[in-house]
Write a structure and sequence with these properties.
CATH architecture: 3-Layer(aba) Sandwich
Number of helices: 8
Strand content: 5-15%
CATH topology: Rossmann fold
CATH superfamily: NAD(P)-binding Rossmann-like Domain
Order of helices and strands: EHEHEHEHEHEHHEH
Low-confidence stretches: none
Mean pLDDT: 93
Largest sheet: 7 strands, parallel
Strand order of the largest sheet: 3-2-1-4-5-6-7
Length: about 270
């Protein structure tokens, strides 16, 4: 089979459960072959069999802990070596929800390594090929805690704030090309991450919790519409526009080169 006749390939990180597994299913249904990355190989193998049976999808299973440099480097090399990859879904993430003073250094380091470092390096690994072909897309899964912080989310919100700003800056870099970046900002979503974070899913107001299926379907609808930023649970899209405009206005107001009048001696 010639390269031009091959199915496009999507890479999904954190694909063994939750949002990543739903992305895998939805993308398989759209005609993608897949590279699925996660720590739990047995879950990936099961998902792979199901997708092959349902959609005829060819799936490459990659067991990897992206917080470990050697395993992250192995995934980077997969991205660099497969010219059929047209989509990268940076979904893998971790969360410990607790005050900073009682969050272990190991948990804090894991959030930075997975939510920030792995996402950045995998983006850098695939971007040169996308730019060379002038085609490709990256979906970065952030959070509504990218622009808000709770007393228990300082570190997590910090990492997701990075994802938002990294994605927005990259979008501006890629303006004028056919390489796209979408940043998705879920609110509370029914995934295992809650129980692992220290805040059980069962303790949340269930009326505020979206299913993973609805989350991914909304995110992909936003992707199809060409959205740069998708907030699946926000009904009034003008709220993001107002927020983003306020950020730009504040930045512009900072470019004076002088202390503000309230900080000058009388």
């Amino acid at each position: 089979m010639s390269q031009s006749a091959r199915k496009p390939v999507a890479v999904v990180t954190g694909a063994s459960a939750g949002i990543g597994a739903v992305y895998a299913e939805r993308l398989a249904a759209r005609g993608y072959d897949l590279v699925l990355v996660a720590r739990r190989a047995e879950r990936l193998e099961s998902l792979s069999r199901n997708l092959a049976a349902a959609h005829g999808t060819k799936v490459e299973v990659v067991e990897a802990d992206l917080t470990k440099d050697t395993e992250l480097r192995r995934v980077e090399n997969i991205l660099k070596g497969n010219p059929a990859i047209t989509l990268l879904v940076n979904n893998a993430g971790t969360s410990t929800l607790a005050p900073v003073a009682i969050t272990s250094q190991e948990d804090a380091a894991a959030m930075v390594a997975l939510n920030v470092t792995a996402l950045t390096r995998l983006t850098q690994a695939i971007l040169p090929a996308f730019l060379a072909r002038n085609e490709g897309a990256i979906i970065n899964v952030a959070s509504v805690l990218s622009f808000h912080s709770l007393p228990i989310s300082a570190i997590y919100s910090g990492t997701k704030g990075y994802v938002m700003n990294f994605s927005r800056g990259l979008q501006r870099e890629l303006a004028g090309t056919n390489v796209r970046v979408q940043v998705v900002m879920p609110a509370s979503t029914a995934t295992e991450l809650w129980d692992l974070s220290g805040v059980p899913l069962a303790t949340l107001d269930q009326s505020t919790v979206m299913s993973t299926e609805n989350l991914v379907d909304a995110a992909l609808s936003g992707f199809d519409k060409g959205e740069a930023v998708t907030l699946p649970s926000v009904g009034d899209a003008r709220l993001w526009d107002q927020f983003d405009e306020a950020r730009a206005t504040l930045f512009a107001a900072s470019q004076t080169g002088q202390p503000a009048a309230r900080y000058r001696a009388a």
